[in-house]
Design a protein that fits this description.
- The protein is an alpha/beta fold.
- The chain has a single domain, classed as 4-Layer Sandwich (Metallo-beta-lactamase, Chain A).
- Helices cover about 25% and strands about 20% of the residues.
- It contains eleven helices and 15 strands.
- The strands form two sheets. The protein has an eight-stranded mixed beta sheet. Strands 7-8-9-10-11-12-13 form a seven-stranded mixed beta sheet.
- The N and C termini lie far apart (about 60 Å).
Length: about 300
């Protein structure tokens, strides 16, 4: 029996009731969804790759190590096949984890295509319903795959080969802005670390800071495509990255990345990589050192002085 579409099609439900119905129907019991961390012995043969896939104005990130793989977001609706083809080019025939950071279409638009094409073991989405066909398509794909969603629990740590990642956001279930529901994770591999925060804005960043998480990371995926709504000075102080990645579309209508963020990167001498200018960017970690497949984007004073 095909499930009843509850999002945007049922009248007379309060938002609270709709939220409860959504969580009860699609999310696994927290104890069932939680994964045990396996104590894998780290060694030099465990090479981690983080692929920031060029999907235009959106996010899609592949993490692979040993025989394990995780996908964070899959771009807009029209990028699903692009992501699937990229995964296939990397010989990915299954995914240990699929994370949809939040329900905006530039992050989860292609997830249904991915889930319908490549088996996924654990699918993590924040517990917030969205009244769009894009969101319903993802739920349909999850149901067709015989899966339930796993709710991100702050502080939970998961294993990915010899790497681990920890959920650091969202820290509330009541936000006015969907961006702040973004699933945030810190990925650790030996002495190297990566931080991904979806479109989390300054409010959510401040909550991460208040919770006392160790946010320090070598590589930061800048929040909200390099928008000035994210990447506060206090947050950047805590992360203190050597590298920053901006996932954005060439000539996008939002002006991402914003001049203020480029200024911050310039002032802090943070090496920048941009999918809008450089295409797919791949970081490789051996647990001690990090290398990149592209030359950094060099910010000059002309980049922001001319726009002031």
């Amino acid at each position: 029996m095909k499930r009843k579409h509850i999002l945007g099609r049922v009248s007379g439900l309060t938002l609270l009731a709709l939220f409860s119905l959504f969580v009860n129907q699609y999310f696994a019991n927290p104890d069932n969804g939680k994964q045990e961390v396996h104590n894998s012995n780290y060694n030099d043969s465990n090479i981690l790759e983080v692929h920031f896939i060029d999907v235009g104005q959106g996010d899609s990130i592949l993490v692979e190590i040993n025989d394990s793989a995780m996908l964070i977001d899959a771009g807009e609706n029209n990028q699903g096949n692009t992501v699937v083809k990229y995964l296939q080019s990397q010989d990915i025939d299954r995914l240990d984890y699929v994370i949809g950071t939040h329900p905006h279409s530039d992050h989860i638009g292609g997830l249904d295509t991915v889930i319908n094409s490549i088996p996924a073991e654990t699918i993590i989405l924040p517990p917030v319903a969205h009244t769009t066909k894009t969101f319903e398509d993802v739920l349909d794909a999850v149901e067709a795959a015989g899966k339930q969603l796993t709710k991100p629990q702050v502080g939970d740590t998961y294993s990915l080969g010899s790497a681990t990642f920890t959920i650091i956001a969202p820290n509330s279930e009541e936000y006015e802005n969907l961006n702040n529901y973004s699933v945030g994770i810190k990925l650790e591999h030996g002495n190297n670390s990566f931080l991904f925060t979806g479109d989390a804005e300054k409010l959510a960043e401040n909550e991460m800071l208040k919770n006392g998480f160790d946010l320090s990371a070598d590589v930061l995926k800048l929040g909200h495509h390099g928008s000035s709504t994210s990447s506060s000075s206090d947050f950047l102080d805590a992360v203190n990255p050597e590298y920053a990645v901006i996932c954005a579309g060439a000539g996008n209508e939002y002006g991402h990345p914003h001049v203020e963020i480029l200024q911050e990167m310039f002032d802090r001498s943070i090496k920048i990589y941009r999918t809008d200018l450089q295409g797919t960017v791949v970081f490789t970690s051996d647990g001690r050192h990090i290398s990149v497949n592209a030359h950094e984007y060099v910010v000059s004073e002309e980049d922001f002085i001319s726009d002031k």
